Amino acid sequence: MSKAANMLNMLMILRSRGKTKTKRLAKILEVKPRTVRQYKDEFEQVGIYIGSIPGRNGGYYIERDNTILNLGINENEFSILKNAKEYLGQNGFMFIDEYELILDKINSNLQKKQDIESIGNLVLDSIPNVDLEEEKVKYSNMQEAIIMMNKVKIKYFSLTSGLNTRVIRPYAMYIYQGFWYVMAYCELRDAIRQFKLSRIKTLEVLDQEFKRPKDFSVGKYLEDTVGIVYDEEKFDVELKIDFSMSIKVSEKIWVKNQDITFNEDNSIIFRAKMTGLDDLVNWVLGLGSSVEVIKPEELKQRVKDEARRILAKN
Description:
- The protein is α+β, with helices and mostly antiparallel strands.
- The chain has four domains: 3-65, Orthogonal Bundle (Arc Repressor Mutant, subunit A), CATH 1.10.10; 72-127, no CATH class; 132-221, SH3 type barrels (Roll); 235-313.
- The protein contains ten helices and eleven strands.
- The chain has helices spanning 3-17, 22-29, 33-45, 75-90, 96-107, 132-148, 218-221, 245-250, 277-286, 297-313; strands at residues 48-53, 59-65, 150-158, 162-176, 179-186, 191-196, 200-209, 235-241, 259-262, 268-274, 291-295.
- The strands form three sheets. A five-stranded antiparallel beta sheet has the order 6-5-4-3-7. Strands 9-10-8-11 form a four-stranded antiparallel beta sheet.
C-alpha cells in the first residue's frame, strides 16, 4: 500500500479499536515498527496527537484530534454529494443517516448554505428488504475483521445447501445491486466465495489471524463476469443481438475485454472472454428473444434448458 493509505488505515484502526500495540499495527500495515513511529510523528504535524503507553498492556492510542474540515468543497460539488445521497437513500444504503450527518457537517462549512432536502429528481429502484440496523452491526464487525485480518465464524443461509456454520477469512466487501457482499476464503469449501451480508444470520470475529494474499483484488477477481459468480473456466462468448436491444447492450461496458461489431441492420455481434456461467445464463435470458447464442455450446444448452423449464410452467 501507499504511505497515505497506510496512515489512513492506521488512523482507522486506532479510532475503531482504541489502544493497539506498535508491533500489531506494523503487522497489519505490513511495515516495520519504526515506520509506524514515523507515522505517529507525521500525524502530530497535522494536529492528530497519538499517545503511547509502555508495558505489556500498552500501545498507541489517539490522544487528541485537532483536525478541522477544510476540504475546499464548493456549492456545485456539494450538489453532487446531495444527488448521491438521494440515490443511496432510494437504494437502501445502510448508512444513509450517517451520510446525511456528514453532509450537514460539510454544509456548515460552506460560505453559502444549501438545503439538504431532496429535490426528488431520481428514479426509484427496488430497495433491499433488510433490517438496516442489523446490517450496520454486521458490516462494522466484518469490516473490522478485514482490517485486523481476523477469521470470522458465521451461520450462513446458502440457496443450495441451506443454513450451515462456516469459518471464513474475509478479504473485502463490495456492494452489488443494492446488497453488501463479503468476498472471503471459505475454510469449509477450501475456496474463495461471496457471502451476501443479509444471509449471514450470526457472526463472531475470532481471535485467529490470517494472511490475505498480497496480490488479491476484488476488481481483478470479478473483471470478466457480468455478475458476482466466478468460475475458474473462462468462455469465449459470442452473441448476436437484434435491434433495439443491441443499442441498450452497446451502451454499457459489461466486461473490459468486450468487442462489439454493428451490422447493417443495427444488430450487433458481442464477443468477450467471460466467466461465471450461472450469471451468464441469467444475463442472456434477460435479453429475451433478441439474442442468439453463437458460442459457447455450454451457454447455448443452459439457456435452452432454462427456457424449456420456463415454458413448461407458463
